[in-house]
Design a protein that fits this description.
Urease, subunit C, domain 1; about 500 residues; TIM Barrel; single chain; 2 domains
Length: about 500
C-alpha cells in the first residue's frame, strides 16, 4: 500500500486555480501526497468515496479569542470542537495579559509558557497565538517571543487608550494590569511598532511573517458619541451601539495607525475586522498614501452576513459593531473587487449568562461584546458569496491560503503535495437553519440563529485524520501548537 488514505470523487477547491476540478486525493504520513484525476483504490489502506462533494483546504481562522470569557482550559476544548465543526483546522488566537484571558499581568516570559501548558492536549485543531504587548516590558520581549516560541504576529487594541472591553474605563491600568506609570496610548502604539520593526530587522529570514495587527477604533470619539446616543435616547439595540462607535471612528484610527506605521517603518500591517464603508475607504486611501507598507485587510463572516436589524439583537453585540445593510453591501463590493485579504470569525465564546444583564436583557450598553461563529465561517461565506458570484476558489484563498501565508503557516492553506492534509468536505446542496443547540460551542445562542445556510461542512480532516464527521467531533484532541514559520 502506497497511501494511508485515498479520497476519491472529490471536487477539489484550490485557492490559486481558476475552477474546481473533480480529482482523487491521496494522503501519506499526514500530508497530501498526490492529487490526480484517477488514483487506483488498491494503492491505499483506506478509501473514502466523497461522492462529488467539495473539498476545501482546511480553514485557517485567522482571528479567534479562545479563553477570553471562560477559562482557557475549557474554551480550548469546546471552542476548538466548534472550529472542527466548521471545517477550521488552524485556530489563530489573539491573546494578551490583563483582565479576561488569564487575568494576570507581568512579562510574557512567564505568562506565555503558562498559556502553552494549558493549551497542550486540549485543542481539537492546530493552533497558534497572536500576542499584544501591553507595556514597555512586553515590547522588549518581542524578539524573545519570535525566537523562542515562534510567535510572529502581534496586536494593538487602539480603543483601549481610554476604553475597556465593553465601555469607558476610568482605571485603565487596573483593566490592563499594567503599572500606574504606564500609558496605553498613541505613544505606546508607536513604540510597539518600533519593536516589531526592530524584530523584522533582526530576523530577516522571518521578516515576511512578522506582522502587526490593529483593532482600529478611536476611544475619544467613542466616548463622546456614546454619551450623545444615551442622552438623546432615540436609538436602541444594535443601531444605538453602531452610532455610539461610529464608522468614522474606525476610519480615523486607521489613518493614525497607518501614519505611525510609515513613521516607524513597520511595514507589515493587518487592519482587523473592517466593519464599514468608511473603514474600508480609509484603509484604501492609506494604502495609496503609503504604498511601501504591506497592508492586509480583514473582515469577519458576521459583518458580511448580518446587519444591525438582525432579529437576534443584543446577542450580536461585538466590537466594532454590526453595521447597516448599506455597509454590509459595501464590504461585499470591496471583497469582490479584491480589496479584502481574508475572512475570519472573530470567535469569542460569551455564554448567555455572561453576555446579557439579567435585569436589563435588552440593554445594549449593559451587554458584553463578542460572540462565537467559527462553526459558520465557511457555510456563511458560501451562502452569501454564491449569491454575489464569488467563486469557490476565491473562498478558499480568503479562508485558507491568504491568512496561512501572511502568518507563516507555510504547510497550510492549499491542497497540494507536501502540505498538511487538512481538508473541509462540504455538501453545497445541504442547507440548514442555524440553531445554537446544534453547535459544538458552549455559548448557548448564536447571532445567526434562524438564518438558513445553503451549504454545510460534513467532514473535517486534520493532517489526514478525521476530526469531524456525521455531525459529531471524532476522537480526542490532537491539535498541535504551530511554532511559526511553520513548514519553512
Amino acid at each position: 500500500m502506497t497511501y494511508d488514505v485515498l479520497i476519491k470523487n472529490l471536487k477539489v477547491v484550490r485557492p490559486l486555480e481558476p475552477a474546481v476540478r473533480a480529482q482523487d486525493v491521496a494522503i501519506k504520513d499526514g500530508e497530501f501526497a498526490l492529487i490526480a484525476d484517477s488514483i487506483p483504490a488498491e494503492s491505499a489502506v483506506r478509501v473514502v468515496d466523497a461522492q462529488g462533494l467539495l473539498g476545501f483546504p482546511g480553514l485557517v481562522d485567522a482571528h479567534m479569542h479562545t479563553g477570553i470569557y471562560s477559562p482557557l482550559a475549557e474554551d480550548a476544548i469546546t471552542e476548538s470542537r466548534a472550529a472542527a465543526q466548521g471545517g477550521v483546522t488552524s485556530s489563530l488566537n489573539y491573546f494578551r495579559s490583563g483582565q479576561y484571558y488569564l487575568n494576570k499581568g507581568g512579562p510574557y516570559a512567564t505568562f506565555f509558557p503558562e498559556v502553552l501548558d494549558i493549551s497542550a492536549g486540549r485543542f481539537h485543531v492546530d493552533y497558534a497565538y497572536h500576542l499584544a504587548p501591553m507595556d514597555r516590558g512586553q515590547i522588549g520581549e518581542i524578539d524573545l517571543l519570535i525566537e523562542k516560541y515562534g510567535v510572529t504576529s502581534f496586536k494593538i487594541y487602539m480603543f483601549y487608550g481610554g476604553y475597556g472591553l465593553h465601555g469607558a474605563s476610568a482605571h485603565q491600568h487596573e483593566f490592563l494590569m499594567i503599572d500606574p506609570d504606564e500609558k496605553y496610548d498613541i505613544a505606546h502604539f508607536e513604540f510597539v511598532m518600533r519593536g516589531v520593526q526592530r524584530a523584522m530587522q533582526k530576523f530577516p529570514e522571518r521578516r515576511p511573517y512578522i506582522s502587526l495587527s490593529l483593532h482600529c477604533e478611536t476611544a475619544e470619539i467613542m466616548a463622546a458619541y456614546t454619551k450623545l446616543v444615551q442622552q438623546e435616547g432615540r436609538l436602541s439595540g444594535l443601531r444605538a451601539y453602531s452610532a455610539a462607535r461610529p464608522p468614522h471612528s474606525e476610519g480615523l484610527a486607521i489613518a493614525i495607525a497607518s501614519y505611525l506605521a510609515h513613521e516607524t517603518e513597520c511595514l507589515n500591517i493587518n487592519l482587523l475586522h473592517l466593519s464599514s464603508r468608511k473603514a474600508v475607504e480609509s484603509a484604501l486611501i492609506m494604502a495609496k498614501a503609503f504604498p511601501h507598507i504591506d497592508f492586509r485587510r480583514e473582515v469577519t463572516c458576521a459583518h458580511l452576513c448580518i446587519d444591525y436589524d438582525v432579529a437576534t439583537g443584543v446577542l450580536a453585540k461585538v466590537n466594532p459593531p454590526i453595521r447597516s445593510r448599506e455597509d454590509v453591501d459595501y464590504l461585499w463590493s470591496a471583497l469582490l473587487d479584491g480589496h479584502i485579504d481574508w475572512v475570519c470569525s472573530d470567535h469569542a465564546c460569551c455564554r448567555h449568562e455572561m453576555k446579557v444583564d439579567g435585569s436589563r436583557p435588552e440593554e445594549i450598553f449593559a451587554a458584553k461584546s463578542g460572540f462565537g461563529g467559527t462553526e459558520y465561517l465557511l457555510s456563511g461565506l458560501i451562502t452569501e458569496g454564491r449569491k454575489r458570484g464569488l467563486s469557490y476558489n476565491r473562498m478558499a484563498a480568503l479562508t485558507s491560503l491568504n491568512p496561512a501565508q501572511r502568518f507563516g503557516l507555510l504547510k497550510k492553506g492549499d491542497i497540494a503535495p507536501g502540505y498538511d492534509a487538512d481538508l473541509a468536505i462540504v455538501d453545497p446542496a445541504k442547507s440548514f437553519v442555524v440553531r445554537a443547540a446544534d453547535s459544538e460551542s458552549t455559548q448557548g445562542y448564536s447571532p445567526f440563529e434562524g438564518l438558513e445556510m445553503s451549504a454545510q461542512v460534513v467532514a473535517t480532516y486534520l493532517r489526514g485524520e478525521v476530526i469531524y464527521e456525521n455531525g459529531a467531533v471524532v476522537g480526542e484532541p490532537r491539535g498541535r501548537y504551530l511554532q511559526r514559520p511553520y513548514g519553512d
